[in-house]
Protein 1
Amino acid sequence: MFNDIGALELLTLGVLAVLVFGPDKLPKLIQDVTRTIRKIREFSDSAKEDIRSELGPQFKDFEFEDLNPKTFVRKQLMDGNDDLGLKEIRESFDLRKEMADVTDVVNGRTPAASDTANSAANGSAGGSTTSLTKTGDTAPDLLKKTPPQTQPERPPFDADAT
């Protein structure tokens, strides 16, 4: 909960507490706060135990953390491993190569020539990669204006039908 509080911030909070509550009342206030936190934890633990005892023996392995939707989905779908096949996809997809292919297509060069240059530059010896570019198609002329598409005629508006 307080993992991101640094030493300087903790010192600032201590100085503010001394200034606001005074050095006489501060020890009593700290005792009261810790006692309240301890009682809340005890209440929470006893409520959890009551729920577990009421659910019966078939729910012995029930954990309250599983009520969090992220934890529940991770536990049910992923069975402990976090990859779901994403590791293979991450390894087969080379963003630099794909960006170089897109740049080559935009500049009018053929991506096949840059593939051999990139594989030689990266030192890959025939690794399996997936390309997102179309092969066999000519590069579109990006500077040429495309003709406007004609839209089909709209049917007449019928107020009674809506």
Note: DSSP finds five helices and no strands in the chain.
Protein 2
Amino acid sequence: MTDLRLLLNNKEGQNDHHIICSITDRKGTILYANEKFCQISGYLKEELIGANHNIVNSGLHNKDFFKQLWQTVGKGNIWQGEIRNKSKDGSFYWVDTIIFPVFDQQHATQKYFSVRTVINEKKWAEQNREKTIGELQTLLFKISHGIRQPVTQIMGILELLNQHSISLNEMKELINYIHLSTTMLDNYTRELTQHVDFITKQEFSINI
């Protein structure tokens, strides 16, 4: 265990500056934290060492999430997943995490070594896409309910004209209905175009 910390300390200046490293005991108490961990969390190394790793718990993940995590590594297996953490200033950051059990000479789990990379941009892109999907669902709802109504009205009027002889006054009334229906249809198509343009611009900004 001491050798692992010495190796990390000696190699820290040479390591990828995007990698967050930490070592905890079996209870989650932090024994080692590299500079990247301090930088992204906003805590001093002296504040992290000796604290429980839940110091950066964002509260997003439920108890079952962490129960499964601890059960996995507690059985000597490697755990990998995405976790949202909270920095000292209250802001959130996402990390892709791999936790390795560290064994003693009897092959019993002694400590846990964690390697993390920040994936904020990936998670933001996912959230934006989820928002876009929600907007598309709303748009489809408007199309199915909004546009269908004036189209149905026009089709009904055309069917009526095809089957019945009508007076001049009735003709005028039907023309008014057609005008109203086409106006509604025009408004919905304009709104549809605006929604499509807005969603396209959002998707373009995500992919830049």
Note: The longest strand covers residues 92-103.
Protein 3
Amino acid sequence: MPTAREALLDAAASTLAVLPWSEVRMGRIAAAAGFSRQTLYNEFGGKDGLGRALIGRAVDRYLAGVDEAVGAHAGTGRGPVELALWTVRAARADVLVRALLTGFWDARLPRPGPPGPRGDGAPEDAGGPPGHRPGASCQAAPAPAVLLALARDRAVAVLRGRGPSPDDTGLESRCEIALRIGLSYAVAPAVTAPSPVGSDAVRLVHEALAPGPKR
């Protein structure tokens, strides 16, 4: 059974799928999750804190997906390919992941921000009802380059878990190439007949990482 925090985040994500963030109301989210507004404010401190928590969860889920996608194929040599495929699918399925990877935050989305003066990620005036206490919230969202580096490093760590790699630099480069290709297809899909999500990225990663002719 999900915790109150997870249920509230799920309700906020569902609401964000149909309404721009500017029209999202705390009372609606609390009611949809089956909790009081006070509980919502206790957990997140206010709407800004809720937005940052949504963004933080998107970061965590994307990186957890990297671990899972690469780890499931660590022994097959398909780790970088699966990294690209997961990046395409995650960015297309979640507008927050797409914004995190591209740095483009349109008006429909909550905006990431630095931690507030208290240092807990919430603004000084969280906008809650009298007597509310600010809840835990995430730190500032990573910039796209930082998030890509985190994903690359996690993929490399998973792949190294199979045993010592003779070419760590090469492994990092292969994962970096796969990520960049995946991101490019997430932002600008190929202009071709409909195909499974990410299939074009998989093909290009295979071609890019294929061994060159021996000299």
Note: The radius of gyration is 20 Å.
